[in-house]
Amino acid sequence: MAIIANHSPNYGVLQFWDVRTGSLLSSLPVRSAKDTSEEDAHWVIVGNPASNEFVITRGAELKIWRLPRSTGEKAIPIERDTSFDDFAFLKDPTTVAGAFRLAGTKDSNNVVVPDVSNVVVGIMDTTLPEPCFPLSQTFSFHKRRASILTTDQSGSYICTQTQKPNSATYPLALFRLSPEGATAIPMPEVSILGGHARLSPKGNLIWTGNRILQIEPSLSVNISRTIDRKGIIDPPFTERIPRWVGNSHVVELVDLRHGTGSPSVAPERHLLLWNVGNGERAAVASAPFAKTLSASPDGTQIAEGSTEKMLRIRDATTLAEQKVLRVHDASLTAVAWHPDSRWSPRRPKIER
């Protein structure tokens, strides 16, 4: 498992842990771009099951670390102040979809300076050596805010959500990828919650926080379930990180008010597990210090990173704690299971 925490405005410490034994495998310093000391710039980790790579992003750079042993890093210009799930690996293990700054003009030292005002959703080849390079495909969202980008397990679909400037609406778009390019799939005209759009591992469902959308074999998209969020307060966008648990459940961080529900009652942080088959709450667990989540590839465990420097491993059915590890000297900002089964819990795979 990969875990990262801030240790200074521009530096973090990336650690790799074997959660089966509670052993620290490796600890590496990672540096973000010089212009990203803002408090709202957060680390994000994305795993690539085909190439044993982790992508670590913060601010204006995307960095690639190869496992099990890392000998260096590759820095690539991306959207400034990246703080959400903006990247996803595709079917080709060397390609990643994300929010990228288009190549700009050369400065006085003949170095290409990216155009920070022109950002697109695109696909890039991580093997290219140049710091600025053409994107093989670009989509229609420019100058994105509060954005989300996810893909299915096969890397055949891309689901994106963005916030329109000066608006409280969050358009959702779905693309099907093929050797010929990307095809936009028409979406229903429904209101969805910002920061929630997540494509399921099998690519047949989309979680939007207040609804579950079904992607039919005919590539039409329909509303499957409506989610009752009564009593739920969404956390800030940087902590609004629902995760699919297998293809049948979704876990998220929420703030809940108990008792009368009166505004005078302070909300408390919880983990909430949803059954997407019936749209009902399957389990809830108190998690007052939780900040980040990740579900294991086999759908049997959930990792919870906290501000109290702890990593909690929970059962994915009951949310009961199975193991608690002190893993850092600072608040955890991102956790991610390694998608390769050799680096995941050696437990029987359960189809959920």
Notes on the structure:
It is globular, with a radius of gyration of 19 Å. The protein is 0% helix and 48% strand. A hairpin with a 2-residue loop joins strand 15 and strand 16. The protein has strands at 2-6, 11-18, 23-31, 44-48, 53-66, 74-82, 88-89, 95-101, 105-106, 112-113, 119-125, 137-142, 148-151, 157-161, 172-178, 181-185, 198-199, 205-207, 211-215, 221-226, 232-233, 243-245, 249-256, 268-275, 280-286, 290-295, 301-306, 310-315, 321-326, 332-336. Strands 21, 22, 23, 24 and 25 form a five-stranded antiparallel sheet that branches. The chain has a four-stranded antiparallel sheet with strand order 3-2-1-30, with no helix packed on it. The relative contact order is 0.13. It has 352 residues and is mainly beta.
Strand content: over 45%
Radius of gyration: 19 Å
**Which structural class should the secondary elements be placed in?**
mainly beta
Instruction: Give the SSE string.
Output: EEEEEEEEEEEEEEEEEEEEEEEEEEEEEE
Major β-sheet annotation: 5 strands, antiparallel
Distance between the termini: 22 Å
Helix fraction by DSSP (H/I, runs of at least 4) = under 10%
Low-confidence stretches: 34-38, 141-146, 344-352
Give the helix tally.
0
| Number of DSSP E strands | 30
Q: What is the 3D form?
A: globular
| Rounded mean pLDDT score | 76
